[in-house]
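hey m, so remember when u said the tokens were messed up on ur end? i reran from scratch. heres the input so u can diff it against urs
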Amino acid sequence: MPIISSVRHPYWAPLGAAAQATRRGLQISQAVVARHTGLTVRQYAALESGFIPPDVADGLGRMSFSLLDEALGWDEGTTRAHVEKALAAAMFPTAAPSVPSFQDETPYIGDRSHYPPAAWIRLGKAVRATRLAEKLTRSELAYAMRSSSKTIMRLEEGRIYGDPRNAPPGDYNSERYILSRLVSMEFYLGWERDHSLEILNGRNEASVSPAA
């Protein structure tokens, strides 16, 4: 079965949305589904989001559709039907499909620090540990976050500032800017939604790997 390969291919949205809705209804983690299907958490998280890097597409192309049906409690053939419908839409488009967006990303308004420096250092260590474990470069993670390698470096070092008056000259990264990109960072690292906020809030201080 051929697979649609793209960085952000809109035809994956229906399958990803259906999988996410079912998984949340079952109250199981992305890691549980990933293990059952033989995918990495990052691959499965990408499937749910519709954001499919080329290397992830290769892994999804080897996934057993029946195993995803089993993991989500779907009738046999449900996953295949989603994929075949997506392929047909890709080959014979009748209308411009909606492209997944990140409009639901964590909002933040204000110019004062919402989190203390120690919180950003904690998150930075977790991001770096997971990035290295997943063998991702800073450039790859930056691309997923629509940012720059320099921003990832500063994030990993905990140099994020909510109030520019606290930042050294020429070394200012907006807390608002980073907070608005946490959702895209989480699924690219294979983390559960809001895992970053749990680390920032000190509810997962020891976490340096994807959420189970």
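this time it looks ok to me. Residues 1-8, 93-111, 205-212 have pLDDT under 50 and may be disordered. if urs says something different then somethings off w ur setup not the seq
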